[in-house]
Hints:
By secondary structure, the chain is of the alpha/beta class. The chain has a single domain (21-268), classed as 3-Layer(aba) Sandwich (Aminopeptidase), CATH 3.40.630.10. It contains seven helices and ten strands. It has helices spanning 21-28, 82-91, 109-114, 137-149, 183-197, 221-229, 245-262; strands at residues 43-49, 57-63, 70-74, 95-96, 100-104, 153-160, 174-177, 209-210, 232-239, 267-268. The strands form two sheets. The chain has an eight-stranded mixed beta sheet with strand order 1-2-5-3-6-9-7-8, sandwiched between helices. The longest helix is centred in the last third of the chain and has 18 residues, at 245-262. The model is unreliable at 1-24 (pLDDT under 50). Pfam families: AstE_AspA_cat. GO terms for molecular function: hydrolase activity; metal ion binding. Keywords: Hydrolase, Metal-binding, Zinc. InterPro entries: AstE_AspA_cat, N-alpha-Ac-DABA_deacetylase.
Amino acid sequence: MHRRTVLGAGAAVSGLAGGATLVRSRAESSGPGEPADPHREMALSRRPIMEGTDRETTVFELEGPETGPTAVVVGGVHGGETSGYRAAEEVIGWGIERGTLVVIPWAEIVALERNERGGPDGDLNRQFPAGREPTTELARALWAEVERSDPDVVLDLHRSRGIYGTHHRWVGQAIFPTAAGDAPADAGAVIEHMNDEHVPRTMVAHRFSMGNTLTGEGPLLIHKVGGDLDRAGFLVELTDFLLDPGTQVRWTLEITERLLERYGMARIA
């Protein structure tokens, strides 16, 4: 997520968490990619948002082998935040034990194609005021999909420039939960897992932090999830400060998997 201050460039740390070359190379490119093939245990359906317009994008709905909870996973709200939508593309290929995954990997498709933060209507993540109708046609269409899904949990995957609490007005390496149910505790547990199991001890500055609770005060998607639906929601922010693109994607995926697991949607091989 962009904040006003722009950091100076730094050398990226390469290959911190291992992983496939394919993930790394895809993470380094921009624009909509090829979604992962669906898992053999999942039933996949697709439907368009804003069909026939330049804003048309795809909703992927995956049904697990057993009925259960529903999660909505969104990427590409900011078109320049590649790791978020690359991670969402990978989630399309996941299998889960039970429940439904609704994945919208390319929310702001025009911004993705331009590799820019905002689209023709500006910053999409400032168009979801709680207690009121979203302020643009695209935001209304996306919110309609969230409401239609009746989710138990919503994840919005982002990438920031700096590190929360370290670099002025930047929010990377943080998870921002809603106040609903156990969402703050779940965010805390996943943060602890990431810091213990994935962030190298030599990278103290890159340890994950808990962001402020999102309850509807701001016009962000997850604020609206908390304020209007009173559901668990998480704004997930990685950083690209001294962190290579492949690691950004892998850590985003690990956070996503662990959060879904806490809502009864364990991943299957």
